[in-house]
Amino acid sequence: MLPKLVKFVLLTRFSKPLLGLVAFFLIYDTVIRGVIGGSGSSNFSGGFSYYAIGSSIFFIVMSLLFGGLFILKSDRDYLLTLPLRRRDLSVSLFIAQFVGSGITILFLYGFYVAGAGSLEDILVLVANLVLLACLVTSLGVISNILQIWQRVALAILLGLWCLSTAFGFEFTPVSSFTGQLVYGTIILFTVTAIAVPVSLRELAYLELGSIRSLLRSTSTEYKKNMSFSGKGPIRAIYSYHLSFLELMGRVNIGGSTSYRTARVKTSTILIISIVAAAVYVYLTGFSALSGMPLTVASEPFRPAVFVIPVFMGVIILVLMSQGTFSNERGWLAFTAMDPATYIRHLLLSRVISALAIIGPFGVADLILALLGQMTALYSALVLLVTVPSASILATYLVARIGAVQQVKEEGMMPGQFDLRQFLVILPTYFVIGLIIVSEIILTAAIVIAAALTVIATLLMIVPSVWRGIAYRLTQRGFV
Amino acid sequence: MTKSYGKTVALDDVSFSIPCGESYALLGSNGAGKSTTLRLLVGLLKPDTGTIKIDGHEPFSPEAKSTLGYLPEDATPYRTLSVRENLEYIAALRGVKDVAGATDKFLDELTLREYERAKVGKLSRGNMQKLSIALALVHNPKIVLLDEPLNYLDIPTQERVFKMLKSLDSTMIVSTHIMSIATRLTEKVLMIARGKIVWNGTIDTLKGMEVGDEPIESVVARLMTGAS
Hints:
The complex is a heterodimer of chains A (479) and B (228). Chain A is mostly helical and 479 residues long. Chain A has 19 helices and two strands. Chain A has a two-stranded antiparallel ribbon with strand order 1-2. Chain B is of the alpha/beta class and 228 residues long. Chain B has a domain of 157 residues: P-loop containing nucleotide triphosphate hydrolases (Rossmann fold, 3-Layer(aba) Sandwich), CATH 3.40.50. Chain B contains nine helices and eight strands. The longest helix of chain B has 13 residues. At the A-B interface, helix 10, helix 13 and helix 19 of A face strand 4, helix 3 and helix 4 of B.
């Protein structure tokens, strides 16, 4: 029964071409690139360590914050009502979760493992990657039974714990990637051994846990309502989208498994960002402020000037490209006014709210540049110009290729994921590439920022482009 | 007009006009092209060939937008806004002058007052449908296009909606499978089968085609099947 159930669960969640491509990437990245090509990385130092630690933090944090269940509405109505063995159900759903989210880790770092050195080291690192993939998978499930504040607290805790590896702390779940194979493996195994059974149990009794919690809060009321009284159409759009942020995450191969909104005021986000940016300026430029040479204490934070624009670029591109249209209602917005007008103001309002997150860091980089850190000027350009422009472009591309799925039920997959949703991440990778180049060469930073601004502006001034997007979305079942 | 989705022809050279003030039932089997017709009329889709004029204007023009009120089948409002926020937001987008007044009117008429602050994503399907009807009518449209408007509604609410729609001085197209809705809300019928109009006439004419005790549904089924 289990194999049949696994097959059924996988094929109802992922299209065959998508599964084929995942298998290809897995083989290509772990076997062909790793064994035949070699990674060229020098064991446990430099590039691989930073990359592996940073990526691990990214996946752990994103899974906790945005992780969702690979559950369809029809599962709730049919699959979960069938007389299936709970263990079979739980294992099948875990495999689907693993394929959808955890597997990414294997093909993002798999090929580096070949450069680890001895066969023993390679085997231990492979085991670490599998454990990490299981941990990320489990955290995505566990996040569903946590309150927002619990998810944020756990994400910060685990994130900082993993980050401490970069500063030499040996006892973390990712210290294997810096060469601490024994401690790292033991700790990662322990954490995973706690997380996996919890998630398996949750998947076995979904209707009593996550789904029930989704259904039972039928009387959810907002304490404070937004008012649109006395506002014109355009002001209403900005008022709505600047009041709070709608968060939608993608930490999997297909798209978003859940749509979560948090009524966080944009002004609150701005204050948090300003405080974080002030800390960032202090840590990366303190010695510059005092007019003294760099101190040893501030040196480890210097990579942040490079890493933060990349990390924020990814976050903003994901939030914008996936989230802008997913909660839109064409039958309301596109029939109330010209879709071209509506979408363009919607995009601008989203860019402004994105700037509330990244803007303070851009300004902080300008301050650092004035204090003499010229590389920070590149980052300022990226955060204040490249990322906002690129996010408009990415939103357009995602909608144009029809990869946006309208959210009709929160906490569940909007439909089967197909190749289209997988490939939609490619523009994001392309932009990340542009951001990295911008961080290295000033001329490139200026040219890329200017080019993306021109493209985004041209897109924004042509109404037929956005009317076409509205038609496209409607044709894809977006009502 | 003609409209295809890839190789599937949804509407094949369909042509009709609805005089101002009249109400039509749009009847057709599943997949006949009823929803596509409404989406084309409301400007959510563009015909491959042909033209559409709403009161003499293109469907995406501001003039047509302010005239039209549209309710799709299984409509979902903004799930993350409250009931009141949905109504106020759409009223503001539509340029309604008294946003709060229009909102209050529909909250009371459709007995949504107690859910005013409720998050829409947590409403029952029936209350969501009530809100959707209110959203389609909040700007007092001259032309109303409704796709299965009474789905999910309890009987008292259905009666309330009947009264509300009958009291509108609007041109109306109601897509439905339920003949009692068609006969109570409209006087004329536009019947579509496999993307073509197969019958166009009055409800009375349709009733006149009944043979013996035959219900009107059988007449409709006969016409649809005969067409296919």
